[in-house]
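Per reviewer request, we include the raw input and output of the structure prediction for the construct analysed in the revised manuscript.
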Amino acid sequence: MNTKVQLAGVELKNPIMTASGTFGSGMEYSQFVDLNRLGAVVTKGVSNVPWEGNPTPRVAEVYGGMLNAIGLQNPGIDVFVQRDIPFLTHYDTRIIVNVCGKSEGDYIEVVERLVDQPVDMLEINISCPNVKEGGIAFGQSAKAVEQITREIKKTAKQPVIMKLSPNVTDITDMARAAEAGGADAVSLINTLTGMKIDVERRSFVLANKTGGMSGPAVHPIAVRMVYQVAQAVKIPIIGMGGVSTAEDALELILAGATAVSVGTANFTNPRATVEIIEGIRQYMGEHGVEDVRELIGAVRD
């Protein structure tokens, strides 16, 4: 039974990885999960300088998931290179670094710092607000997606994954733009913008007013968008969005994803990733599937 998949020339032992921002760099979870069993660890977003993030409160539980407005708090690339990468290299898993920035230059600076580091792929978070374009996210303009992808590809040594925002009119436009810019893969979906109001206090629950919605409630949207993008581009897709079980992961694979990221589920079940890997193997055995790649995009009309 083969669970290996190829992602832009990088072989993963299985299609399951972590979603950025939900697993740190694996340190906190290593006492619960054998990181060697994961297809890849996707790190928390890394910026060129430390980011403090948004004011608190910045996390709220909602029906079917959670809202977060963390604001990509992180200690910056210097600490990441000194602390996180050396930790991850002790494990037999692929390392995918999530990169964030507020300008094209910010992204390029981080990518340059990672050129000679032992990391396997870069995931570019284009849901960040583009400060030079009035705060609109890079990922909400097809022209901006193509432009930043092209510039990053000029610098990057590792394969580049563009992480797409679902907060757009047509996700396929953004996927095509990433492909046109030279992206090696795309990942989707990032969180959906949401809001929660405390009716007793008549005030916003999050200090930021809005936050990113994630969890089981967004899963059907993720399945739909992954399917649409799989019909629109030829590059591989990493699917994510509300994945809690092996069935959820298999839905995304059947819709066209080569690999699947597990995010919010890690907060309620630290062993979610490993349980999903085991569940996929069980499904393959029960359905006579010899190679997991047989399932990619195999949904029937």
